[in-house]
């Protein structure tokens, strides 16, 4: 069947959905109809995609009639309920929630790293990784392909938009309170100024960093940290990979950064690592500290690739590399990777 | 000789000097005369210490006449010139610059970790560690004393006051520009708003994180990262310790945070690690994520101890612990540790 497939975007009005509509308007137009879907309270709104105003439909089983591929950017519990219903109608679901990522019958796909995995989907669902994992895995995957990864020790500097629109609005409100003040110099002064207005975060995020993201899992780990470990292992096909992550929220609007200590099977060289990163699809090597070149969120936000800088070999371990990576958590970290997976799947329809 | 020793505070008007005067006013009054010293352009100003207004003297050889102990909080090049001149007059210099830290004839002291080292000072100088090292070394030292440290992999979240008053004022100015805006969502928008006003930082620091602190050393490492490695080794007396640090500036006024992956000689338990941290002098264990307890700069700023939270054992390495530590970079990270060293030295005068 060679025809343009029909796409549904479920969660079209959220922070990730908004970026998704931009991406669909920018990428090659491979889709037939694009149907926008959201919760009933957003139904009837019109949103721009591919230069046209499209009315948002309320989520129901009927909206999936005739749909070939559906991209879901909705909370876990919504995805858990609706993705199987759509899949039961023959829709290929590309889901950006955590609901199915660790399901052994659901592939977890990063097109630059494991594109083949998207073809085998017993439940009709393909999962999109967590934004923190996605912000570094393309670079790490390229190095793994040549050097063989043994261990990852990562620390994140996560933007507030990873917690959705509420995260962004919370930081914007708090910034207005602290800008022009002398706050940040005595214990609790920022907290008192912010009061209970911490939004989706457990502590004030303006003039602060918060070492917590997600919910509490066993032994003091956060769900976000467990995702980085479990998802990295699944994407790379390394079930025994040693991973230790600490996830920290920082007062940045969009673009996650991570420090990465990556240990490989044998000795590595910075020169070869730089060659790999300079030519890897989806990666930009931006690494010349003498010229002031290293990635920061302010430069990377709004762009597609994973930016890598500060490439060094560990001074005391010739098998380990240090990296600083930045990736737009709403683009590659969410909407872009979802769109790339959907485009991979769409080829099955258009290949005829 | 049992008498109250005379103290000189060199660099009394700087960001660290200001905190030093607060600390001298709060601690037990062990000093006789306290002489305040700064550059000639600050001479004649009066500053409050121990409830009295004291006139600032211009730095000269004569200001050290009759001084027993001098605390230096001045740039490296000023310390390199003036500390030996003061020492030649018999003054014990406690220096917070990087000028002497790695000199084998200058002890590098953290009173909770290696107090004995302060007694042997062939050059008459005791060095105070860098603020980033100091923000974690008390906690790490306590664990090392029992478990035996093998490797440290750390990432920093460094406050702007680590770059002095100029750093603080730069972030304050940038926050006024970005608060109330929609900046931080497209490439370079923050940079364009900030223009050239990046102060002591290579990139905008508001709504951003900047993976650079200090100057460029060999193989892409920053001087700040090398200090963490070299100073940790020297303080802990472990010249072969494996250390990998990545230093990143964040938009926080004061208090450095670090993620620490610490690998020890043998298997460790979280229960024992927590006991050690809960009882170690100078450390506060604040670690109950279920109750929302983990340290953040907003809570820690203005306090003396090293705060430790997020204590976990690495899931894939029973010899490694993960920590999140916060320390006020102007207090324990600079002025407080300097004062503590000076107080150790002062006991030699008052012990009689």
TrEMBL record, chains A, B:
Catalysis: reaction(s): L-aspartate 4-semialdehyde + phosphate + NADP(+) = 4-phospho-L-aspartate + NADPH + H(+)
Q: Which residues bind NADP(+)?
A: 13-16, 41-42, 161-162, 329
Per the record, the pathway is:
Amino-acid biosynthesis; L-lysine biosynthesis via DAP pathway; (S)-tetrahydrodipicolinate from L-aspartate: step 2/4; Amino-acid biosynthesis; L-threonine biosynthesis; L-threonine from L-aspartate: step 2/5; Amino-acid biosynthesis; L-methionine biosynthesis via de novo pathway; L-homoserine from L-aspartate: step 2/3
Its EC number(s): 1.2.1.11
Pfam families, A to Z: Semialdhyde_dh, Semialdhyde_dhC
Family annotation (SMART domains): Semialdhyde_dh (SM00859)
Residues reported to bind substrate: 158, 249
Q: Which residues bind phosphate?
A: 101
Please give the SUPFAM superfamilies that the UniProt record associates with this protein.
Glyceraldehyde-3-phosphate dehydrogenase-like, C-terminal domain, NAD(P)-binding Rossmann-fold domains
Instruction: Please give the superkingdom of this protein's source.
Output: Bacteria
GO MF, one annotated term? aspartate-semialdehyde dehydrogenase activity
**InterPro entries reported for this sequence:** Asp_semialdehyde_DH (IPR012080), Asp_semialdehyde_DH_beta (IPR005986), NAD(P)-bd_dom_sf (IPR036291), Semialdehyde_DH_NAD-bd (IPR000534), Semialdhyde_DH_dimer_dom (IPR012280)
- Top enzyme category: oxidoreductase
Any idea which residues are catalytic in this one?
A: 131, 256
Q: Quote the Gene3D superfamilies the UniProt record gives.
A: Dihydrodipicolinate Reductase, domain 2 (3.30.360.10), NAD(P)-binding Rossmann-like Domain (3.40.50.720)
Subunit organization: Homodimer.
What family name appears in the similarity comment?
Belongs to the aspartate-semialdehyde dehydrogenase family.
Name of this protein: Aspartate-semialdehyde dehydrogenase
Q: What is the lineage of its organism?
A: Bacteria, Bacillati, Actinomycetota, Actinomycetes, Kitasatosporales
Which gene specifies this protein's sequence? asd
């Amino acid at each position: 069947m060679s025809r343009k497939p029909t796409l549904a975007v479920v969660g079209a009005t959220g922070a990730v959905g908004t970026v998704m509509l931009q991406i669909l308007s920018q990428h090659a137009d491979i889709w037939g109809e694009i149907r926008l879907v959201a919760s009933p309270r957003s139904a009837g709104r019109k949103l721009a995609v591919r230069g046209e105003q499209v009315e948002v439909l309320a989520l129901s089983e009927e909206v999936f009639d005739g749909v070939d591929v559906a991209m879901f950017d909705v909370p876990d519990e919504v995805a858990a309920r609706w993705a199987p219903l759509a899949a039961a109608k023959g829709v290929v679901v590309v889901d950006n929630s955590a609901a199915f990522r660790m399901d052994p019958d659901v592939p977890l796909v990063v097109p630059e790293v494991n594109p083949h995995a998207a073809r085998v989907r017993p439940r009709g669902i393909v999962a999109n990784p967590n934004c923190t994992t996605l912000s570094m895995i393309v670079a790490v995957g390229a190095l793994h392909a040549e050097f063989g990864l043994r261990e990852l020790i990562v620390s994140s500097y996560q933007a507030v938009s990873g917690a959705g629109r509420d995260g962004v609005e919370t930081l914007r409100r708090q910034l207005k309170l602290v800008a022009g003040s002398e706050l940040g110099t005595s214990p609790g002064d920022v907290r008192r100024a912010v009061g209970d207005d911490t939004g989706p975060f457990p502590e004030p995020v303006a003039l602060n960093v918060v070492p917590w993201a997600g919910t509490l899992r066993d032994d003091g780990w956060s769900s976000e940290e467990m995702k980085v470990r479990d998802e990295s292992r699944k994407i790379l096909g390394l079930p025994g990979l040693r991973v230790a992550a600490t996830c920290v929220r920082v007062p940045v609007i969009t673009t996650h950064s991570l420090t990465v200590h990556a240990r490989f099977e044998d000795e590595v060289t910075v020169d070869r690592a730089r060659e790999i990163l300079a030519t890897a699809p989806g990666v930009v090597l931006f690494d010349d500290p003498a010229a002031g070149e290293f990635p920061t969120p302010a430069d990377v936000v709004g762009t597609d690739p994973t930016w890598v800088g500060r490439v060094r070999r560990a001074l005391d371990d010739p098998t380990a590399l240090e990296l600083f990576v930045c990736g737009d958590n709403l683009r590659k970290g969410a909407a872009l990777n979802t769109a790339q997976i959907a485009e991979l799947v769409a080829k099955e329809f258009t290949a005829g």
